[in-house]
Amino acid sequence: MVARAGGLPIRVASKSLRSVEALRNALSFDLVAEEVGGDIDEILDNWETHARSADHFECFWFPHTDRAQIKRNTRLAPDAAHEVGPRPKWKEFLDEELVGNGAFAAALALGRAVPASIPYANRIATAALSHNRYRGTNHGVFVSPRRVRFHEMEYAVPLADGPAVVREIRSLIDRRGWRIGFPLELRTTAADDVALSTSTGRESMYIATHVPQFVEPQPIFAEIEPLLRVAGGRPHWGKMHTLGRADLAELYPRFDEFCALREQMDPQWRFGSNYLKKLFG
Questions:
Q1: What does the pLDDT look like over 206-223, one tens digit per residue?
Q2: How far lies 230's CA from each of 39, 45, 100, 163, 227, in Å?
Q3: How many CB atoms lie within 10 A of CB 128?
Q4: What is the 3-state secondary structure (H, E, C) of 119-138?
Q5: What are the structural domains of the chain?
Q6: Nearest Cα to 71, choosing from 154, 147, 157, 141?
Q7: Residues 266/5, Cβ–Cβ less than 8 Å
Q8: Signal peptide position in this chain (predicted)?
Q9: What is the pTM of this model?
Q10: How far is Cα 275 from Cα 281, in angstroms, rounded to an integer?
């Protein structure tokens, strides 16, 4: 038994040990990670082919360049044999800390002092992209240390529309003359049937825009967000966006169903906040 926010008991079925073990096994897998540089136009032209070529596919495009870093991850059972071995500790430290955090932070600091240096720094970063291939646990591959603080806005748009939206953002950046030192993160997910999932009912491409913490994000995000919204984009629930309940109800077929259930379970908003009331109130 568990209780609602209002104190009325409800009955919850307990999970069997067998189902818990099945879940544990489903979440336990290794990944063979491949990281390589690529041409952003070729990547966007063939996005769906790239996305379906691996279990997990994403890329990072550096504004002011025509290059991107591609990351492909292929799942393996933890005990499965494979020719690719783990990444040496020294290489992991070089990639994740010295380059991914230390050198990146230095480039952003230079860009803050001399904005005109940002396009050059991005070109240097893309020229230095190396081809890495290694095996690791899923959490060891998926999780990276992020020492550099930033603001982020991310939307999920229909998969087929994603590349065109990225090109519109690229064109906007060029027209406005913005100097952006952070790469755009692009990734893909399968469709699902979860009521508030950003991929509910459709395959999706996620487009994430970042700016350093010391940059005011609103002027940039305010112009990029309409491009994402026109494509039917759904905002990441944990990142910056400007949508309210009326906007979200148009994007999620089961949104009103969720809101009615939330009201039934917590009519006094004991698990609510002013922000959640804006979204679901």
A1: 999 999 999 999 999 999
A2: 26, 21, 33, 14, 5
A3: 10
A4: HHHHHHHHHCCCCEEEEEEH
A5: 31-242 (3.40.462.10), 244-281 (1.10.45)
A6: 141
A7: yes
A8: none
A9: 0.89
A10: 9
